[in-house]
Write a structure and sequence with these properties.
single chain, 347 residues, alpha/beta, Aspartate Aminotransferase, domain 2, Aspartate Aminotransferase, domain 1, 2 domains, 7-stranded mixed sheet, 14 helices, globular, binds pyridoxal-5'-phosphate
C-alpha cells in the first residue's frame, strides 16, 4: 500500500538518482580523512553557505550538539528560543553531555527572538552566573509554522552577538527552504553567524546526514567533538554521495513544496472547525487547530485518514502539523483535504 505521509519531511526516502550515486560512490576511511566523496560533500556544503569548512554529521541533532559543545565549556550558557528544536527536541543533549546551561527567551510567532530579550538575557560578569557564550537561532523556525527568519533580522542578531562578544549558531535544518522562500542565497542567511547546521535528510530527501559549517579552525575542533560523540564514520561516502545529489538537484525545487503547502492551506481553510495558523504557510509546513466544539480531536483525524492511506501526526489533541515534501504530489494534497473534510463532517 502506498501511503501519503504528511508527518514530516524527515520521512522522505532517497530518489533513484541518489540510490545509484550511493551504489557507485568512491569511498575510504573518513576518520583517517580518506573518503573523497565525504570531502567533496563537505566542500560543496561549505561553499553553499559561504563558510570556510564543513563537517558531515549523522543528524541535525548531532550537528547542533557538536556546535554547542565546540563553542562552549561546561558551565557556559546559551541563549535560545523557548520553542526551538535544540531546547525542546534534542533530548537535553547540550546539558546532559556538555554541561551547558540553556537560557530560554520567548520565540515570537514568526520564530524570531526580540533582540531586547536576547540582550536582557546576557549575563553580567559575576561569579554567581553562568557565562553567556552563544546565541542559537533556528531558520526556518519549525514550531512557528516553518517561518523563515529574514536576512535583516539575522544580521541584527549577528551584530548584537559581536557587540557582546558572543557567538551565533544557526540551526538551519531547513535553511534552503528559508532561502527559496525569501529568494535569497543560503550564504546570505548564514553570513552573520559563526556556525550553521543544515540537514540533507529532510526536504532534500537524502537518507541520512547533516552538515555543520564554520571556520576552518572551528571545524577542526568540531571534528574532535564529533569523535567524542561517537560520530566518526568510516566509509561514509556511501551516504555523502546521496547528499551531493541532494545539494545539486533538490534545493531549487523546494518552491514546489511551498506552493503545494499553500494549496493545502487553502483547502483546509474552507473546512468548518479548522483554523489554519500562519496562513498562507511560509514554507513547507501547515499548522492548524481544531475547534473543540466540533467534537473532533487530532487522534480521530489520524485514525480516519489512516483508512485512506494517509499518515498524519498531531502536536496535541487540537493542533496538527502537515508537512509537504518531494513525495507529496498534487493528488495527495487533494486526498488529504477531502479526507479531513469528510471526517470533520461526521464526528
Ligand atoms: C529545526 C530542526 N532542527 C534540528 C532537527 C534535528 O534533525 P535530526 O532529526 O536529523 O536530528 C530537526 C528535526 O526535525 C528540526 O526540525
Amino acid at each position: 500500500m502506498e501511503w501519503a505521509d504528511f508527518r514530516s519531511d524527515t520521512v522522505t526516502y532517497p530518489t533513484p538518482a541518489m540510490r545509484s550515486a550511493m551504489a557507485q560512490a568512491e569511498v575510504g576511511d573518513d576518520v583517517f580523512g580518506e573518503d573523497p566523496t565525504v570531502a567533496r560533500l563537505e566542500q560543496m556544503a561549505a561553499k553553499r553557505v559561504g563558510m570556510e569548512s564543513a563537517l558531515f554529521v549523522a543528524s541535525g541533532t548531532m550537528g547542533n550538539l557538536a556546535a554547542v559543545l565546540t563553542h562552549c565549556q561546561r558551565g557556559d550558557e546559551i541563549i535560545l528560543g523557548h520553542r526551538s528544536h535544540t531546547y525542546l527536541h534534542e533530548a537535553g543533549g547540550v546539558s546532559a553531555l556538555g554541561g551547558v546551561h540553556p537560557r530560554t527567551v520567548p520565540n515570537q510567532d514568526d520564530g524570531t527572538i526580540e533582540p531586547q530579550d536576547i540582550v536582557g538575557a546576557i549575563r553580567a560578569l559575576d561569579d554567581h552566573f553562568p557565562t553567556t557564550r552563544l546565541i542559537v537561532l533556528e531558520n526556518t523556525h519549525n514550531m512557528s509554522g516553518g517561518t523563515p527568519l529574514g536576512v535583516n533580522y539575522v544580521q541584527q542578531v549577528g551584530t548584537l552577538a559581536r557587540e557582546h562578544g558572543l557567538r551565533l549558531h544557526i540551526d538551519g535544518a531547513r535553511i534552503f527552504n528559508a532561502a527559496v522562500a525569501l529568494g535569497r542565497p543560503a550564504s546570505e542567511l548564514a553570513a552573520p553567524a559563526d556556525t550553521i547546521t543544515f540537514c540533507l535528510s529532510k526536504g532534500l530527501c537524502a537518507p541520512v546526514g547533516s552538515l555543520l559549517c564554520g571556520s576552518a579552525e572551528f571545524i577542526r575542533l568540531a571534528r574532535r567533538t564529533r569523535k567524542q560523540l561517537g560520530g566518526g564514520m568510516r566509509q561514509a561516502g556511501i551516504l555523502a554521495a546521496a547528499g551531493i545529489v541532494a545539494l545539486e538537484t533538490m534545493v531549487d525545487r523546494l518552491g514546489e513544496d511551498h506552493q503545494r503547502a499553500r494549496r493545502l492551506a487553502a483547502g483546509l481553510r474552507e473546512i468548518p472547525g479548522i483554523q489554519v495558523e500562519h496562513d498562507p504557510p511560509p514554507t513547507n509546513m501547515v499548522y492548524f487547530r481544531l475547534d473543540p466544539l466540533t467534537g473532533m480531536t487530532t487522534q480521530s483525524l489520524i485514525e480516519a485518514l489512516a483508512s485512506r492511506s494517509i499518515r498524519l501526526t498531531a502536536r496535541n489533541p487540537y493542533r496538527m502539523r502537515l508537512v509537504v515534501h518531494y513525495w507529496i504530489d498534487d493528488e495527495a494534497i487533494q486526498q488529504v483535504v477531502e479526507g479531513i473534510a469528510a471526517a470533520m463532517s461526521k464526528p
